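Example 9 (inverse folding). The structure is encoded as follows.
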C-alpha cells in the first residue's frame, strides 16, 4: 500500500467536524474550517425558494435520508447545483436527552448551508428543547410527518402525525411564536387516500405559520416502487396560498423538486447528469475521508454511485471489500482515481479505467 493511502486513512481517522453537545454545539472543527459563523439570512430556505422563483426555475432539494445524508454527502450534492440539503432525521427526544445521540446524529461546518435539520418528534416540549439547542447552527427546521417506518409510527412520529393535524399545527405555532422569522420551519408530509384530508391538513398547518410544505406523493402504505401521485401534489399546491408562490413545474405547479433515492445513486442529478459523474466519486472520497464517515456508509455510498457504471460482478467485488484500505486499493487498481492535488480532480464525467486492466469493460 502506498504512503498516500496510509495518509488518507490516518486523515480519515483523525478528522474532526463540528458536533452537537450538551450546550448546543462544541466548537471542534475540521482542519480546514474555522469556528461556525453566524447563519446568513440569505441562506434561509424560504429566501432560497423566492430567489429561484425570480430566476424562473424550481428549487432543487436533497431530501433527508436515514444514515446517508450526513455532512460528506451534503457537501457533495452542493457541488452539483443542489440548492437546499436536509440532514438525516434526528429523534428530538434522544437528541435533547442523550449526549451520545448529539455527537453521532449532527455535524456541520461553515460551508454546510443552506441546511434544514429534520426532526422526528411527537410533542411540543421535545420540539422546543431541540430547536433551542440546534437552531443557531442550521437554516431551517423540518418536522417529519411522512416517515412510514412502523417503529416510528408506533411512537407517534413521522406518518403518524398525518392523523394529528392539530398537534402538528400547535408545534408549528409554538416555534413561530418563540422565534418568529428567525426560524424557517417546514413540514414534510405524505398524502391521504382521501385528498380532502390532506387539503384540510395543509390549510391548518399553513394557518399556524409554516413557511413551506414538502409533499411526498404517496400514502404511508404506498411502496416506493409504485409511482408517486403527481396529480394529488398539484391539487394540494393549489389549495394553499403561500405568499409569492406561483406555477413553475408544469405537472404539479409546485415550487421545487426533492430527490432522495435518485440523488443517492447520482449526486449530479440536478446538474443534468444522466449517471453519476466520475468527478462526484472522486469528490466523495475526498469529503468522506476529510470529514470522517463510518466505513460501511462510505462503502454503501460508493456502491450506489458505481452501480450504473460497472457490471454486477464488479459491484460484488466492491461490496466484498472489508475495510477502507481494501476499498481504496480496489479503486486505485482499476481506475484513475485522482486526489485533490491532481490536475482535473473532480472534473471527470466518464469512468477512467486503467488501460492495463484487461478484465474491465470498455466504458
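The amino acid assigned to each position is listed next.
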Amino acid at each position: 500500500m502506498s504512503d498516500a493511502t496510509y495518509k488518507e486513512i490516518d486523515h480519515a481517522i483523525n478528522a474532526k467536524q463540528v458536533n452537537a453537545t450538551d450546550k448546543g454545539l462544541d466548537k471542534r472543527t475540521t482542519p480546514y474550517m474555522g469556528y461556525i459563523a453566524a447563519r446568513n439570512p440569505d441562506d434561509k430556505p424560504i429566501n432560497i425558494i423566492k430567489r429561484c422563483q425570480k430566476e424562473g426555475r424550481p428549487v432543487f432539494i436533497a431530501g433527508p435520508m436515514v444514515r446517508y445524508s450526513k455532512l460528506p454527502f451534503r457537501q457533495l450534492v452542493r457541488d452539483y447545483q443542489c440548492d437546499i440539503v436536509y440532514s438525516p432525521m434526528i429523534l428530538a427526544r434522544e437528541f435533547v436527552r442523550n449526549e451520545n445521540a448529539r455527537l453521532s446524529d449532527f455535524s456541520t461546518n461553515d460551508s454546510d448551508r443552506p441546511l434544514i435539520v429534520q426532526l422526528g418528534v411527537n410533542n411540543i416540549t421535545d420540539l422546543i428543547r431541540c430547536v433551542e439547542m440546534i437552531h443557531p447552527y442550521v437554516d431551517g427546521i423540518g418536522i417529519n410527518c411522512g416517515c412510514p417506518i412502523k417503529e416510528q409510527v408506533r411512537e407517534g412520529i413521522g406518518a403518524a402525525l398525518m392523523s394529528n393535524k392539530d398537534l402538528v399545527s400547535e408545534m408549528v405555532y409554538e416555534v413561530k411564536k418563540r422565534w418568529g422569522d428567525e426560524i424557517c420551519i417546514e413540514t414534510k408530509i405524505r398524502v391521504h387516500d382521501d385528498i380532502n384530508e390532506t387539503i384540510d391538513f395543509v390549510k391548518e398547518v399553513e394557518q399556524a405559520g409554516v413557511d413551506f410544505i414538502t409533499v411526498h406523493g404517496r400514502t404511508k402504505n404506498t411502496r416506493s416502487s409504485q409511482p408517486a401521485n403527481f396529480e394529488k401534489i398539484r391539487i394540494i399546491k393549489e389549495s394553499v396560498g403561500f405568499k409569492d408562490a406561483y406555477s413553475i413545474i408544469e405537472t404539479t405547479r409546485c415550487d421545487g423538486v426533492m430527490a432522495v433515492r435518485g440523488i443517492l445513486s447520482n449526486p449530479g442529478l440536478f446538474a443534468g447528469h444522466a449517471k453519476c459523474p466520475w468527478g462526484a466519486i472522486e469528490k466523495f472520497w475526498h469529503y468522506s475521508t476529510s470529514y470522517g464517515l463510518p466505513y460501511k456508509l462510505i462503502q454503501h455510498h460508493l456502491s450506489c454511485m458505481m452501480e450504473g457504471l460497472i457490471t454486477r460482478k464488479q459491484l460484488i467485488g466492491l461490496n466484498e471489500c472489508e475495510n477502507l484500505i481494501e476499498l481504496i486499493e480496489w479503486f486505485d487498481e482499476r481506475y484513475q482515481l485522482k486526489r485533490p492535488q491532481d490536475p482535473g480532480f473532480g472534473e471527470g464525467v466518464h469512468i477512467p479505467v486503467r488501460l492495463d486492466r484487461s478484465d474491465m469493460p470498455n466504458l
